[in-house]
Structure formats: structure tokens, C-alpha cells
Specification:
Layout: H1 3-9, H2 13-23, H3 26-33, H4 39-52, H5 55-61, H6 66-101, H7 108-117, H8 122-144, H9 179-190, E1 196-201, H10 208-216, H11 219-224, E2 227-234, H12 239-251, H13 260-271, E3 276-283, H14 288-295, E4 306-311, H15 314-319, E5 324-326, H16 333-344, H17 357-366, H18 371-381, H19 387-394, H20 408-415, H21 419-427, E6 437-438, H22 439-448, H23 461-474, E7 479-480, E8 487-489, H24 492-502, E9 506-509, E10 523-526, H25 537-542, E11 548-551, H26 563-570, E12 578-580, E13 602-604, E14 625-627, E15 649-651, E16 671-673, E17 676-678, E18 695-702, H27 710-715, E19 724-730, H28 739-748, E20 757-761, E21 782-786, E22 805-809
Helix pairs in contact: 2-6, 4-8, 5-6, 6-7, 6-8, 9-10, 12-13, 12-14, 16-17, 16-18, 17-19, 18-20, 21-24, 22-23
Length: 819
């Protein structure tokens, strides 16, 4: 193996995308055939290998040396530019190949050769010029690395994959040493005195939220108060917003017309009759005037009513003002050791041959009794069994680093992340603190930016993404939401860490505007409330190389600016990989200019009021994910839709297409999400069209009386749809003729044995098909038979060992026949 090959084999994750492009050799061949300076390509490869050798050391030193951090950010910016150039070459080659295949008069080979031999175009000249600029930037950065003292092959970051709002729920299994703190606060809340505020104050990672959750769920507190409310406040202490949230929870009202005066008068009347406990978690506001306005309706509350506040800042407790301020203690060494072992050993006790407890206890002391630090370091050491590895972590210089209140233990855990996980974690800085995110959605975003490295096995890219995600969960960088196990959260200090390592490349614009240099921004997210309109347009004009445009919708909804402004500006962002315009009800049509976004890999138009997509969408050859969820006015997809060969997910749930494009069966990697399919009386929506789709999730097939021939149902090929988990078959309720045809149709609609749920409604046959009684339904958990009134014979369901729910209504078999 050559030196260059060795460099490629251990390439840092944020250089991997560029190297994947260079490794194919197509860029070099392009330069050679077009008469361009091929030396540029060779130099780029060598230069990336050179800077790659010191990246681990730069990642290590960036927390303590601002010059190294600046160098690293400049390097990442240059690499982003290199990726853009190489991706554009790849796109151009693919585009020319498709155009050549579309011309019938000469062979494909001769047409491709003709393209390569043609004289250099303006596109070629631009590519060569940009390549020179990238190379100059990398050469300058490479020349500075020695002066910065960056060393090659720094050990420590190698490895491989083997804020939702807080809620009141708590997992008590993973909590140690908080019983005394809980009892003290419970007694304070039980004092029978006037309305008061109690504050829990302490540094990040100390477990304030966990302590508040323990108190909130204590049986003594549940019996003490008529009503308990939990509200995660975070950075946005908006009096009207918080008052609305409390009002909605108390009154179960969705009235948006109420102003602050009306809301507070109603709350004042309510609080005078009910003894309440309101927990305000993660509060940052220390403005006395705002607190005075917020507390106004509660001051005269029932005796014993309380508000419990958690905050990192003592000034918040003084501004409330708090009648009691409680500072939780750090965990004792013994409690810290107990918590550490729960994460370091997972079975909650050291193995019998464990011989380095002394080192472990010294590491626990360095965590200074902070639960978050103990969890992340414990999760890190779970993967390291040797005495040497534990000792290296104990002796690491990172324990001496102090940066922006980010715990050294978290910096150390980040340092030991495999490089491919570092890039995935940094991207999550787009999420606001306390934001809830889903695993599948995040994996799609990672995939759109080529963060997921190709596996040597036969695993799909989605499976690789799932491994990455689970690895970050197991290392305590992500944790399950206590309110909804389908979602995940990041602790706010880990969010701070992600913000630091992502630097200027990720910018989340929240309600409060902040001064920020946007010239290097590549990823933009924003979060708003239902009564505010997000004003991102001015910022967007400053971002020339944007790759992510991502609205983060919360339960309060979202307001958009005008459609024209959106597309006029976004279609100038030629580097976009992720574009979401979800829930934009101002959009009635998509302009042809969207075809200019040649890098686009993720497009979300869900809930938009579009009737069709322009033909230019079929020029987005890199597109991997297309979401059209609840585009209920959408009637058709472009005829050339099958040209999107890289498309992997098409979400058509709650759309009502009148026609499915032909040749979609050639899109071998495509998974399609449908909620329903209405069988038409004409060829446009013939059931056999489902045979071309690789379906996923749940599907209702209705109007089945329109299937004229059983062979059409057979061509739907449901038996091969292994990703379908739920099927509903429905005939028209009033159709009762030709029972033999219905039996034949249902026989031919035999599903894959992976099916979990099956429903058959208004079936007009006299018996069910044989596959009801064989291994086809071996994994079925729920079976519904509704209004199959002509059926007088059922097969035995005795072999359905996995069946958990059986619903039968208006089925006409003889009583006692079924077993």
C-alpha cells in the first residue's frame, strides 16, 4: 500500500467526502480529457493527505489555543469549497451521460467520447479556476501548521462503529445520591404559607432538572397540590408565550385571540381557587420587570401555591425574587462511583477480573461530583477495557482545560469520538437547546451531507446511519426524551459543545437575534412560535455557500414570508444539500429554477399547497429524499421522475395522485411511503402500478371492487414488499356481486411474512384465501376482519403465535366454526 493509500485509509471524516470523489478517478480523467491542468487534481490529493495527518492534534488543541481553532475552521471552509467543486464535476459527468443516452443516432460510447474531446467550455474554465483557489487556500494552511506546533498522528481520536423540552417524567434507575436534596425541597414546598417562588440553582451538569423531576413526581407533592404544571422555559422568556402555555394547559383552550391582559385576568381568577405547583425549568431571564409582569396573576394565589424554578444563574433567583434558593450538592465520591459504574459497566457492577478500580475512582474525583460528566466518561470507558486506556484518560491534559463552562469530561469524551461521529455530532448544533429530534429524520440529514461512510459489509446507508446514531446514544451524547421515547434530546451543555466545535458553519437563528459572521455559514436552522413571523431574508442574502436551510417546527406552528422571496433567494444558493419549506402555505407552485440546485439531496415540501412539481425537479440527480407529506392538492409527478436514480425515500403519505409515473420500478433503491391507494377504473391507477414501488410502512388499498382481473392484483407484487408493516384491504360497502372475483383478488394480494397488522373490510368472498392459515401471517400482531358478511368459512388461526389483537365484526360464518 502506498503512502497516499495509507492516508486515504485513515482519512478524517470531514475530508472523506472529497477523497471519495478523488478516489474514483473521474475528476482526474475529466481534467485530462478536457485539456485542463491535471496537476491541480494530483496536488489536491496530496495536500489533503498532508493536512489530514495533523487534524487529530488540531481537534485536541482547539479548546486551549484560539489560533489552532481559527486554523481548523479555515481548513474546514477550504474543504467545503473542494467538495462543492468535485460534486459539480460529478454532476456534470452524470448529466452528460444521460443526455448522451437520450440521443439514439450514435452509440453511447462515441457520444461520451465526443463530450470529453470537445474544447473547454466556460464551465470547465470556472472549475479550473475554483480548483486553483482551493489549492492555494490549502497550501497556505498547510504552510502554517508547523508554526502552530501541530503534530502528526496524535493518538486518541481513532475508532470505529462496532433540546426536546424537558418533561416532568424521570428515570429513577439512573439517579444516585439525590434523596436528601429531594426531601429538603419537598418540605419547603409543603410549608403552609403564602404563594412563593423556590429556586434550584447550580452549574450545568449538576442535575437540577433531574432533581426537579424527582420532586415533581414525589407522592407527597402529588397529594399536596390540586394541579401541577411542568414548563421548559430555556432562553426565550417571553411573558405572553409562557402565559399562553400555562393558560392552555390549565383551561384546555386553544383560543389564540386572547391578549395578555385577558389571559392574566382569567389566570388570576383560577389561581385564587386552586392550589398549584408550576415548575419552570432551565430559566435564564434575570430581568426583574419581566418577572414582575409574568408573576402578576399568581401573587394572590391559594395559600401554599408554589412556583419552582431551575437555573444556572443566581441572578435569576434574585430577580424572581425567590423566597428560598437551594443549591444542590455535588455528588459524593461514593455516589459518583456508583453512578459512574452504571454507565461504565452497564450491568451496574465491575466484572470479577476488574483490576483498575483505583484509576476509576481517580477519574470519578476529576468529574467533581457532576452527574453529566460521570455519565459521559462512564460511557466512554465502557468501550475501553485495558489498564493503559483507562490510565491515558486519567492523565489527559484535557482535564485542565476550561472553556466557556464546557465540562472537561465532555471535551474529553468528544476528543475520543471516532472522527465520523464528530462531524455528525457537530451538525446537531443546528438544534436549539431542549429541542426534540427523531432518529430517522436526523439520519436522512446526515445522509444528505455524505456524513455516512460506506460500509465494507452489505449494510445499507440507512443502516450505517442507525449505527452512528446508536453509538452517540450509547456514549451519552444523545438521550431518550423522558416524555416521548420516539424522540431524543441533547443536554444543553452538550449543545454548547456542539456549538463550539461546529464554529461559524452552523447557525441557528432563534427568536432573539444575535450578532454573527454569516460569510462562512453553511448550515442554517430557525425556530419560531406561532405568533411571530421569522425574518430570515436579510441573513440569507449574506450566506453565499449555504448547504442547509432547515425550519424546525414546534407544536406552536410557524409563519413564513412570501413565496417569491423564498425562491428568489434560495435558488441563488447553488450549494444547497438540504432544503426544507415544510408547512409553507404561501407556496402554490415550485418554480423551474429549483433545477439549478444541482447539489440538492434532501427536499421537504410537506404540507405545501402545490398541485404538481416542475419538470426541472428531474434534473436534481443527487436527490436522495423527497418529502411530499400531506400535499393534498398534488395530482401528479413529472413523467421523467425515474431519472432520479439516487432517490431513496419518497414520502407520499396523504397525497392523492391521479397517476404514478412509469418506469419507477427502475429506481431500485427507492422506498415509497404511501398511506392509501385508491384503485381506479382506468389504467392510470390500476393496482398493478404498486408492483413498481418498494413500499414502506402502512398502506390502505381501497375501492378494490375496481380490480377486474386477479392477475392485476398479482402484479401488485405485495408478496415481495418486505418493508410494509401494515396493510388494509377495503372493498366498496355496497358491492356484493361476483364473490369468486373478490376471492381471487384477495388470494393474489398475499403480503410478505414481515407484515405486522392486517385489516380486511367489506370483503365479499365466501371464504378467505389459504394464505390466512399458513406462514404468511406468522408475524402478525393485529388482525381485523370487518363486515365480511358473506364469508361462511375461516381457516384456523392457531399457528398465529404472535397475534396480540383480534377484531371481528359482522362476519357471517356459522357460530362455533372458527377455532
Amino acid at each position: 500500500m502506498s503512502g497516499a493509500d495509507v492516508g486515504i485509509a485513515f482519512m478524517s471524516a470531514f475530508l472523506q467526502v472529497a477523497f471519495d470523489r478523488l478516489a474514483t478517478g473521474e475528476t482526474l480523467r475529466y481534467f485530462q480529457k478536457r485539456g485542463l491542468n491535471e496537476t491541480l487534481v494530483k496536488k489536491l490529493k496530496i495536500m489533503l493527505i498532508s493536512v489530514n495527518s495533523v487534524i487529530d492534534d488540531a481537534e485536541y488543541k482547539q479548546f486551549s489555543d484560539p489560533n489552532v481553532r481559527a486554523w481548523l475552521l479555515e481548513l474546514k471552509d477550504a474543504v467545503y469549497d473542494a467538495e462543492d467543486v468535485l460534486d459539480e464535476i460529478s454532476y456534470e459527468l452524470y448529466k452528460r451521460k444521460l443526455e448522451a443516452e437520450a440521443e439514439p443516432q450514435t452509440s453511447v460510447t462515441s457520444k461520451v467520447r465526443k463530450f470529453f474531446n470537445a474544447s473547454a467550455t466556460s464551465f470547465d474554465q470556472e472549475i479550473e479556476s475554483r480548483m486553483k483557489q482551493v489549492l492555494e487556500s490549502l497550501e497556505f494552511l498547510e504552510s502554517r501548521r508547523i508554526g502552530l506546533g501541530l503534530n502528526e498522528g496524535k493518538d486518541g481520536a481513532v475508532g470505529s462503529v462496532t433540546k426536546l423540552p424537558t418533561t416532568s417524567l424521570v428515570d429513577e434507575v439512573g439517579i444516585c445520591g439525590r434523596d436528601k436534596d429531594k426531601d429538603i425541597i419537598v418540605r419547603q414546598l409543603q410549608n403552609d404559607c403564602h404563594f412563593s417562588v423556590i429556586s434550584i440553582v447550580g452549574m450545568g451538569g449538576l442535575g437540577k432538572t433531574t432533581l426537579a423531576q424527582l420532586v415533581y413526581n414525589d407522592k407527597r407533592i402529588k397529594s399536596e397540590f390540586d394541579l401541577r404544571l411542568w414548563i421548559c422555559v430555556s432562553d426565550d422568556f417571553d411573558v405572553l408565550r409562557l402565559t399562553k402555555i400555562i393558560f392552555k394547559k390549565i383551561m384546555a383552550s386553544n383560543d389564540e385571540a386572547e391578549d395578555l391582559d385577558a389571559l392574566q385576568n382569567k389566570l388570576k381568577d383560577w389561581s385564587s381557587k386552586k392550589k398549584f405547583l408550576i415548575v419552570l425549568d432551565d430559566v435564564w431571564c434575570d430581568d426583574y420587570v419581566l418577572w414582575e409582569a409574568f408573576l402578576a396573576p399568581f401573587i394572590g394565589g391559594v395559600v401554599g401555591s408554589r412556583i419552582l424554578v431551575t437555573s444556572r444563574n443566581e441572578k435569576v433567583a434574585l430577580a424572581v425574587p425567590s423566597d428560598e434558593i437551594y443549591h444542590p450538592n455535588h455528588l459524593s465520591d461514593e455516589d459518583g462511583w456508583l453512578l459512574f459504574t452504571k454507565y461504565a459497566f452497564r450491568n451496574y457492577c465491575p466484572p470479577t477480573n476488574f483490576n483498575h478500580e483505583e484509576i476509576g475512582r481517580k477519574i470519578v474525583k476529576k468529574c467533581k461530583g457532576l452527574p453529566l460528566a460521570l455519565k459521559t466518561i462512564g460511557s466512554l470507558l465502557y468501550r475501553k477495557s485495558s489498564w493503559e486506556e483507562w490510565n491515558n484518560i486519567l492523565r489527559s491534559e484535557i482535564w485542565n482545560i476550561s472553556y466557556n463552562n464546557i465540562l472537561p469530561a465532555l471535551i474529553l469524551s468528544y476528543h475520543y469520538l471516532p472522527s465520523h461521529l464528530k462531524r455528525c455530532f457537530a451538525y446537531c448544533s443546528l438544534f436549539p437547546k431542549d429541542y426534540e429530534f427523531g432518529k430517522k429524520e436526523l439520519i436522512l440529514l446526515w445522509m444528505a451531507h455524505n456524513f455516512l461512510q460506506a460500509s465494507q459489509s452489505n449494510k445499507s446507508i440507512e443502516e450505517v446511519g442507525n449505527e452512528y446514531f446508536q453509538e452517540l446514544v450509547s456514549r451519552s451524547f444523545f438521550q431518550k426524551s423522558s416524555g416521548n421515547e420516539a424522540y431524543f434530546v441533547m443536554h444543553d451543555i452538550l449543545n454548547d459543545l456542539a456549538n463550539f466545535v461546529s464554529g461559524e458553519f452552523c447557525f441557528k437563528q432563534e427568536v432573539k437575534e444575535v450578532a454573527y459572521n454569516l460569510e462562512k455559514t453553511r448550515h442554517l436552522s430557525f425556530l419560531c412560535h406561532e405568533y411571530r413571523e421569522y425574518k430570515w431574508s436579510e441573513n440569507l442574502q449574506k450566506i453565499k455557500k449555504l448547504q442547509t436551510f432547515l425550519p424546525l417546527l414546534n407544536k406552536w406552528g410557524f409563519k413564513w414570508t412570501s413565496r417569491d422571496l423564498i425562491f428568489d433567494q434560495l435558488c441563488k444558493c447553488k450549494c444547497l444539500r438540504v432544503l426544507s419549506l415544510t408547512s409553507n402555505d404561501t407556496i402554490r407552485e415550485i418554480p423551474n429554477s429549483i433545477g439549478n440546485l444541482i447539489h440538492l439531496q434532501y427536499l421537504d415540501l410537506s404540507y405545501c399547497k402545490i398541485k404538481r412539481l416542475p419538470k426541472s425537479v428531474c434534473l436534481l440527480y443527487n436527490l436522495q429524499t423527497l418529502k411530499l407529506l400531506e400535499c393534498m392538492l398534488l395530482v401528479e409527478l413529472p413523467a421523467d421522475f425515474h431519472k432520479l436514480k439516487n432517490l431513496r425515500l419518497l414520502d407520499l403519505r396523504f397525497t392523492f395522485l391521479k397517476k404514478i409515473p412509469s418506469n419507477m420500478g427502475t429506481m431500485k433503491n427507492l422506498l415509497v411511503r404511501l398511506v392509501s391507494f385508491k384503485v381506479g377504473k382506468c389504467n392510470e391507477l390500476n393496482i398493478k402500478q404498486l408492483g413498481e414501488l418498494n413500499l414502506q410502512g402502512a398502506l390502505l388499498i381501497y375501492e378494490l371492487q375496481n380490480v377486474v382481473h386477479g392477475m392485476d392484483a398479482l402484479q401488485a407484487n405485495l408478496k415481495e414488499k418486505k418493508y410494509l408493516e401494515e396493510l388494509r384491504f377495503r372493498w366498496n360497502e355496497d358491492t356484493n356481486d361476483d364473490s369468486q372475483n373478490k376471492k381471487d383478488v384477495l388470494e393474489k394480494l398475499q403480503p410478505h411474512q414481515n407484515l405486522k397488522k392486517l385489516s380486511v373490510e367489506y370483503y365479499g368472498g365466501t371464504r378467505f384465501p389459504d394464505w390466512f392459515g399458513d406462514n404468511t401471517l406468522s408475524n402478525i400482531a393485529e388482525l381485523r376482519l370487518k363486515s365480511c358478511k358473506y364469508c361462511f368459512e375461516l381457516p384456523s388461526f392457531g399457528i398465529l403465535a404472535s397475534l396480540r389483537s383480534l377484531f371481528i365484526k359482522k362476519v357471517g360464518w356459522h357460530c362455533g366454526y372458527w377455532c
